[in-house]
Amino acid sequence: MSASVTALARTLDQELLALSRGASLECPCCGEFVLRLRGVLACPECRSLLADGREVPEIVLPRANTAS
Length: 68
Prior knowledge:
single chain; little secondary structure; three-stranded antiparallel β-sheet; 1 helix; 12% strand
């Protein structure tokens, strides 16, 4: 029996498209869940933002829980 291996890795464009249409909730930078705040997708862990257009709205991100 022979089996073929198919690559599962996606390009950054594919990851961002999946994120923007809601098919993915994972931050492409750190892998944490993203939040949807006022039309912006934001990661509270690494503080990355995905916004439509050139203007980034002013938003306040909640701090990620840090266990000490």
